[in-house]
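Ligand-bound model needed. 4'-deoxy-4'-aminopyridoxal-5'-phosphate.
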Amino acid sequence: MRMSKKFDAFVTWASGIKVPINKKILDQMAAWSQGMNVKANRSALLSWRVLEVNSMFADRISDVPKSFIREILKVAISPNIISFAGGLPNRELFPVQELQTASNSVFEHSGQEALQYSNTEGYLPLREFISQRYKTIKGLNIEPKNILITTGSQQGLDLLGKTFLNEKDRVIIEKPGYLGAIQLFSIYKARFSPVLLENDGVNIQELTVASKLRNTKLMYTVPNFQNPTGITYTNEKREQIANVLRGKPLMLIEDDPYGDLRYSGTHQSSFMHYLPEQTILLGSFSKTVVPSFRTGWIVAPDEIMEKLIVAKQASDLHTNFFTQKLLAEYLQQNDLNEHISKIKTMYGRQCLAMIECIKRHFPKEVTYTLPEGGMFLWVTLPYGISAMDLFQKAIEKDVAFVPGDPFYTDLKESVSTLRLNFSCVDEATIEKGIARLGESINEYITEYKQKNLTV
Ligand code: PMP
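Prediction:
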């Protein structure tokens, strides 16, 4: 709860009305409550205690809204609802048996070692695997010493925030951008410079202006199958971006949790090819193996790595060592590419099914992205229709999605864009859900026109 500086707390009365009060009145009320009957006294004090704690929170956390998607997922969790709102990998693809076998073998051969504390940098064979994979898949020469294992790539982002950002430093971010990054950078009290994301990458004119603003330290991008839009930057755009940023005192973060999940089109090069000295890579096993292991990594040059290691030590000493060992064992016993190709086949089919259904069920004025990989598709509604209002209508028809609003850092009014996830919904359910969503959109447009609003 954000409180005006003049007040120390809010009191919520039984009627639900909230009243801001200062410390003096709060003390008086506490004294006065001594005379109340026991039940009223207890509940009044309980409520004050909570409210006083609220006034104690640091600005860095008070200012950051709750994860909007988590709130939405609470609504979407009901079994009747067809949910395109989540962002989870499909659990049917988790290599449960293989991980069990790998786990048994870790316990059998190195149980004691695997259960002990370990080093901050991460398990060397795992870092060697990642290094080797960069070489074979992307043609990048990255040494294991420049790879730090993190607790998911989300922690990688956190460590970068900790390492680079002072209050009010600027971060260039895609518009729309990854919600987890918006939330994270908000905790470090960064200022955002949102740059419009077009179909081939961010707008170069806007980026040029943003890159010249004082105290701009980071640019955050998800160049492959972006969350939330599914858009991939072309090589041409990547080169132009590198030309804009080259020599400026800022680092580009290439967050690439979906890069391996390309099911159509051609591979585009990492920013490491165009801007090696200013690029930091984030990677993750969450979408290619399992998310629960919380195993990701950062690739950074030596001098940055030194600081990141200190930041990580202070955060959690090291990432779960048992799961690092288990993962390394799994990767040794199995062919990751083979496993990834199963994921790509499934998501590719689901994505195609969703696009075909959209063509059939959505009105012509609705536009959408055509992802070549990943788990998301981005829809733009016509006539300035509010995706938030549509969400309410869609829930009545038991279908959920994420309205575009939380993906913007400069929101002035409700937006007409929304994110659809297809990785967790089978093709028959996609058909049913998109048909329902199409009905909701059509009904909304009809109502909108009937109200004689400008179209
Ligand atoms: N970056 C992006 C763009 C994401 O979509 C996600 C998760 N949805 C993450 C980072 C975090 O992934 P993890 O911490 O599981 O590696």
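DSSP finds 16 helices and 16 strands in the chain.
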